[in-house]
Amino acid sequence: MISLEDIHVTFGEGTPLETRAVRGISLDIQEGEFVTVIGSNGSGKSTLLNTLSGETLPTSGKIKVGDDDVTYWSTAKRAKLIARVFQDPLAGSCENLSIEENMALAWYRGKPRGFGSALNSQNREIFKKQLSRLGLGLENRLKDKMGLLSGGQRQAISLLMSALQPAKILLLDEHTAALDPKTAAFVLDLTCQIIDENKLTALMVTHSMQQALEVGTRTIMLHEGKIVFDVKGEERKGLTVVDLLDLFKKNQQGEELSDDSLLLG
Amino acid sequence: MSTIAALGALESGLVFALVAFGVFLSFRILEFPDLTVDGSFPLGAAVSAILIVSGVNPWLATFAAFGAGMMAGVVTAWMNTKLGILNLLASILTMIALYSINLRIMGKPNIALLGETTVLTPTESWGMPYYWATPLAFSVVVLVVFFFLLRFLNSQPGLAMRATGANARMARSQGINTDRMIILGMAVSNGLVGLAGSLFAQSQGSADITMGVGVIVIGLASVIGGEAIITPKTMFLALIACVVGSILYRFAIALALNADFIGLKAQDLNLVTAVLVTFAIVAPKLKANLTAKFSRGNK
Known about the structure:
The structure holds 2 protein chains of 2 kinds. Chain A is of the alpha/beta class. Chain A has helices spanning about 45-55, 75-80, 100-105, 120-130, 150-160, 180-200, 210-215, 235, 240-250, 260-265, and strands spanning about 1-10, 20-30, 35-40, 60-65, 70, 80-85, 170-175, 200-205, 220-225, 225-230. Chain A has 10 helices and 10 strands. In chain A, the strands form 2 sheets. Chain A has a 6-stranded mixed β-sheet, sandwiched between helices. A 4-stranded antiparallel β-sheet of chain A has the order 2-1-4-5, with helices on one face. The radius of gyration of chain A is 19 Å and the shape is globular. Chain B is mainly alpha-helical. Chain B has a single domain (about 5-299), classed as ABC transporter involved in vitamin B12 uptake, BtuC (Orthogonal Bundle). Helices cover about 75% and strands about 0% of the residues of chain B. Chain B is built from 11 helices and 2 strands; from the N terminus they run ααααβααααβααα. Chain B has a two-stranded antiparallel sheet with strand order 1-2. The interface between A and B is medium-sized, with 34 and 22 residues.
């Protein structure tokens, strides 16, 4: 489904600020897999996601989705295959546009945009139905500006938007990190529902080891731009945060993980 | 102010409503500070003037002015999106280049259109004085453009264009080719400004190389002034605000220059414009501050 072949991403190559964010990641993700990605700050999680979405082009390596080699496709072109929810709740929607206009933008993702009216009674009905499942009363506020909503509400709508059109892949970049615990749980629950319903292949970057093990079908951990471990199936069942730390220590020849936030999250 | 002066203000106000639409598209929809308009306005005038004096059908000449303006916008947008030049700088470069191009097109600094057949010639048979007929004809043009833009901004590509200006990263992740949207938007924006330049030259009876100076400020004054009066909650209101702002700006200028007790003369026009724009930008903030103070005082 998704295959990454020896991806390298280097920023500012040849300058004193050269950063090798991703150093040779190869990964095959099967259709329907829900991969959680963990790693400390600067481990290359976000860069990996940006390479998949097309915002960052790899310095070397190859990316394939299905049979398409998408390595040099623009973000816009990839949008018909890939839907994305950003870490920043403000980044995934336009605050100056209304709720229905934001949803209409997603409604035409990957479709040719003709000169017809962006909103019509049919897609409004669908937006309403989708919004009502949130139970937040947003279905009655279609014309409200997105900027009037809270971060959690906007993130929930971003999730709904990602599922309005069939995509093959859903990318989630720490999309619950900026939310309070209760809202985060709500959004995570919604995420699992949407992935399940639409049978999506998903990649979720998270800062919390607990979360990484609780949801999804496979977990990979990045460290300094490389995959340090990759667990799934039977091996992943029953793993605890402590097991993960041991696994990390084993694979890193005794190096201790120093990022507290990974443990506390 | 006499009736003729008032109708004259209305007439310029209507022409500059087209400029305001263009500036609204670039500054507000695309968030692209575009100074190209100072060049595309005289470009439209130059293209249509030279075609008209060469005997080309005036409608065709006006259409060509629209096309020429579009091309100017495409050049600016292309320099910004494909060459990676900062948007403001790209527009300044095009504006400067257009000064030479406009001189080349006209072959001399100005072309008189008096006695030529223009798109306004048919209005002579309407049986009313020109100072009534011209604003009437222009209001038809503004109305047509108004509805076309309103339709466009609520269409799928129009919404995509608004998203491009509001949140380009999000727009791209929704499959919108933001570069293409910027190029399209800038083309339409400068096309409208070129059209305005053409109509202005035809109603004033001449095209002049200097007629573009300060057009961007007038356009901005109209957009910002309009927004200060009408809160642009919807696209419909935002476009109405452009027209209202543009006409009111002309009346404010006419009043300022006609009021003898202030002692302003025609040469003070640019100063008055700058003061008006500054005031229009500050007014909403000032209003908010005063309201806050007032409500505190009442407690």
